[in-house]
Automatic annotation (TrEMBL), chain B:
<dbReference type="GO" id="GO:0004828">
    <property type="term" value="F:serine-tRNA ligase activity"/>
</dbReference>
<feature type="binding site">
    <location>
        <begin position="342"/>
        <end position="345"/>
    </location>
    <ligand>
        <name>ATP</name>
    </ligand>
</feature>
<feature type="binding site">
    <location>
        <position position="295"/>
    </location>
    <ligand>
        <name>L-serine</name>
    </ligand>
</feature>
<dbReference type="GO" id="GO:0005524">
    <property type="term" value="F:ATP binding"/>
</dbReference>
<feature type="coiled-coil region">
    <location>
        <begin position="134"/>
        <end position="168"/>
    </location>
</feature>
<dbReference type="InterPro" id="IPR006195">
    <property type="entry name" value="aa-tRNA-synth_II"/>
</dbReference>
<dbReference type="InterPro" id="IPR002317">
    <property type="entry name" value="Ser-tRNA-ligase_type_1"/>
</dbReference>
<dbReference type="Pfam" id="PF00587">
    <property type="entry name" value="tRNA-synt_2b"/>
</dbReference>
<dbReference type="InterPro" id="IPR002314">
    <property type="entry name" value="aa-tRNA-synt_IIb"/>
</dbReference>
<dbReference type="InterPro" id="IPR042103">
    <property type="entry name" value="SerRS_1_N_sf"/>
</dbReference>
<keyword id="KW-0030">Aminoacyl-tRNA synthetase</keyword>
<feature type="binding site">
    <location>
        <begin position="413"/>
        <end position="416"/>
    </location>
    <ligand>
        <name>ATP</name>
    </ligand>
</feature>
<dbReference type="InterPro" id="IPR033729">
    <property type="entry name" value="SerRS_core"/>
</dbReference>
<feature type="binding site">
    <location>
        <position position="349"/>
    </location>
    <ligand>
        <name>L-serine</name>
    </ligand>
</feature>
<dbReference type="GO" id="GO:0005737">
    <property type="term" value="C:cytoplasm"/>
</dbReference>
<feature type="binding site">
    <location>
        <position position="459"/>
    </location>
    <ligand>
        <name>L-serine</name>
    </ligand>
</feature>
<keyword id="KW-0547">Nucleotide-binding</keyword>
Length: 503, 503
């Protein structure tokens, strides 16, 4: 049963907030406590934490990566930026950023001025002159040089401070996004209806136990809580879900990928996550600057880092299969049983790089793909336009899908689709060269080439396996405890139509 | 073309030693440099390195896990054990172990004696006596108690030292295993023949580049060297290999599993690996006692740790799909290009728990399954009986399969099958209760139940995806640069029979 929701209509259904596929928001919902060094400490060069093969990129040190932030734009639109920061409940200090920027801007001018003076002195020295005059110029040149070195040093440090603060500014927000907390999120669409059962409904843990599908207890001994083994038909179900999802998304023109699951922490940061904050979701590797990925969004974003793409290549559409690892630090409470919240899971992720003018279109395309897939599996779900406080720093707009989970008697999040506009691309350094050069512009840098622009990036969950397993088990349970397999998955399970007890 | 190799016949083919699926041996081939603290330091209680939720199990502290080593057997067979240590080029110190054991044995007797005396004193005090006599007994009892506490403390420390040294003793060796280094390994079987090409042969990297199958360069930026993205048809090939392998092995009665890829370091150690040694193959997680698995053998072994299984359950046969992570520290040289040696890969692993008298039979079964699968893919390969210096501490006997890789112009290891007898089960604490009780034995502990015995464990690679991809690309390349897909995999690739350039 589809119910169209007009703008302004809020349907409040009791909903279990399980923010995990929406990776940034699950972090943002946690008290924001990133380790910010006091400015004085930030000025000291920090020692590298990792072996010589990698840069000390995760320190607030001179070598920390720089985001291509448009400071002028921020300054020209400071009210809008300030309002956005408030709406998102972010604690970034905009005033400080603007002060640092002005300071930086002026210092940069000063540096240019002194450089100019030094060049002038150097030029003067080319001509003929008296010895004492030459000596005086040499002195002057030397003073200017020393002064310049000091100023340039200050400029670098100031840039570091500016970057540190400015990188915290969240992305702007789509005008249709509801302002407020999770209760303000708006339902865009409602699909299907809750199945009716003529027998007592079991949750996925109970169903899994009877069918020998999981082992959580031994996994707790071997690895820790929130780990699990999948067994028997659950393995086939995972493989079927992954295979089917990849196949469905590939049909729609996405390029399949598998990715590294260990990445440098700087890449994690550039995608908008905080590997080193308190309550971080990110596992770090000992004696290394590497981290485990919490989503394939990260290595896929990194696929085109520091590149200028030809416009004809866009849009680039990828579908990536990977394992994902999350600490789930700070995630407490009832929603932690069984497969709801786990440290390791398989996920198929969609990712698009496109031109700015196309990102809203592709956001709609991504959510449509998700809708089609979940519908074809017969799920009952709703699509939410997430409210401003739930977006996560990189997302301009975010649609979440929550599916009905009869065993939980609530809706639970099964996917998330974000339009990150140029937030990630400005950090990852991903640009494209527009085809048409502007006509005879005096500001052109290289002959007739248009200057490169930042791409927009989008990401969306095609299939988060544990959440899907919960949905399938709980919705398709039969009275005898067996599970009906939805039609689309049967070819991927050797034609089988039921998961039943092993005889 | 099958060529059976009689015992004693050595066929020497130039062979690329790629020790990676044979996980323990690749570690053992490196200079053995585990961090052994001097004994005095070992006596001090070390602080926990990890948060309160996990024990400081990787420290040489009182709480370090204990292996159920049969010291009496070692003592009674010390020449054989010493010869075995020499044959395996191990630096375990047998003399030290035997000395520590004697001391431990005697100290244990002393403790029992003092306990006896203390009990005697306690008994005496039950009767009537003069006050002075009672006082004297109380004094005596107190002294004995303090002495006992000190002795028990010494006993614990001695046990720790004994365990530390004894755990290094490698497994015994099958009598048919050739003695010596890698050149002594014997070929058991040779299957198929090298394909002949009427055109210049390309290696997998070149083939992959033309067909847009891999990206190593970007992965080096995002993650580091020896990481990679699989793209396009390589993703389908990986999925096909995993799906087909799981299906083939399940047909043979193995229970499918997916496993945690983060495990406690103690479980890694109990399987016979050294997470904390120099040049360790194991990635550790920061601020945690967890490690990334290098093979599913580890979490599968852990599945039945600290258990007594009913004999009727045996054999337990599992086929596990997981991602594997290896540091490849210390692995240098030519065999590192492309997919040969990577930090992360997908693998399907077989694992058997069985009764001791059956392990040799199941070792043959495992290698037969591998041979059947590789034959059906049309590969040219040889099966080796690995020599004593190449076994790795846990393996009683190890068969490696090396497949012909035309692009490398050498054989390369694609799988390994080990019989670990009771080496792992004595560490993981996995026993079984034989069904038949011995007849009216005076030593029966509980009624008519036979005492539990340690199971034997075996593990074998069903499919190490990157090595298989190399084999398939290089062996099945066509003149036009396309790749023929072997018959068995076609149903798993949507019926396709060729990987060719994208138009």
């Amino acid at each position: 049963m589809k119910m169209g929701c007009l703008n302004g209509t809020t349907i409040s259904l009791s909903c279990l907030k399980l923010p995990f596929p929406s990776y940034p928001s699950s972090f943002q919902n946690v008290p924001f406590r990133r380790t910010i060094k006091p400015l004085s400490a930030a000025l000291q060069t920090s020692p590298a934490t990792s072996p010589s093969t990698t840069k000390a990129e995760d320190q607030g040190a001179r070598s920390h990566w720089k985001a291509a932030i448009d400071f002028k734009w921020i300054k020209d639109n400071k009210e809008a930026v300030a309002a956005n920061i408030r709406n998102r409940n972010s604690d970034v200090d905009l005033e400080l950023v603007l002060q640092l920027y002005d300071h930086f801007f002026n210092l940069q001018k000063e540096v240019e001025r002194v450089r100019g003076e030094r060049n002038a002195v150097a030029n003067k020295m080319k001509g003929k002159m008296e010895q004492f005059e030459r000596q005086r110029l040499i002195e002057e040149g030397k003073n200017l040089k020393e002064g310049l070195i000091a100023l340039e040093e200050d400029l670098l440090k100031l840039n570091d401070k500016l970057q540190l603060e400015a990188q915290r500014i969240p992305n702007m927000t789509h005008p249709h996004v509801p302002i407020g907390g999770e209760d303000s999120s708006m339902t865009r669409k409602l699909v299907g209806s809750a199945p009716e059962f003529s027998f007592p409904v079991k949750d996925h843990l109970e169903l899994g136990k009877e069918l020998c599908l999981f082992d959580f207890d031994t996994a707790a001994e071997v690895s820790g809580s929130k780990f699990y083994y999948l067994k028997n038909d659950a393995v086939l179900l995972e493989m079927a879900l992954v295979n089917w999802t990849l196949s469905e998304v590939m049909k729609r023109g996405f390029t399949p990928l598998t990715t590294p699951e260990l990445v440098r922490s700087s890449i994690v940061e550039k995608c908008g996550f905080q590997p080193r904050g308190n309550n971080t979701q990110v596992y770090s590797i000992e004696d290394s600057d590497q981290c485990l990925i919490g989503t394939a969004e990260i290595p896929v974003g990194g696929l085109h880092m520091d590149s200028i793409l030809a416009e004809t290549l866009l849009p680039l559409k990828y579908v990536a299969f990977s394992h994902c690892f999350r600490t789930e630090a700070g995630a407490a409470g009832s929603a932690t049983r069984g497969l709801y919240r786990v440290h390791q899971f398989s996920k198929v992720e969609m990712f698009i790089f496109c031109r700015p003018e196309d990102s809203e279109h592709y956001h709609e395309e991504l959510i449509k793909i998700e809708e089609d897939m979940f519908s074809s599996l017969g799920l009952h779900f709703k699509i939410l336009d997430m409210a401003s406080e739930d977006l996560g720093a990189p997302a301009y707009r975010k649609f979440d899908v929550e599916a009905w989970m009869p065993g939980l008697e609530r809706f639970g999040e099964i996917s998330s689709a974000s339009n990150c506009t140029d937030y990630q691309s400005r950090r990852l350094g991903i640009r494209y060269r527009p085809l048409e050069a502007p006509v005879a512009s005096p500001k052109k840098s290289k002959s007739n080439l248009a200057p490169p622009k930042f791409v927009h990036t989008l990401n969306a969950t095609a299939c988060a396996v544990p959440r899907m397993i919960i949905c399938l088990l709980e919705n398709y349970q039969q009275e005898d405890g067996s599970i009906l397999i939805p039609e689309p998955l049967r070819p991927f399970m050797g034609g089988r139509s039921v998961i039943s007890r092993k005889s």
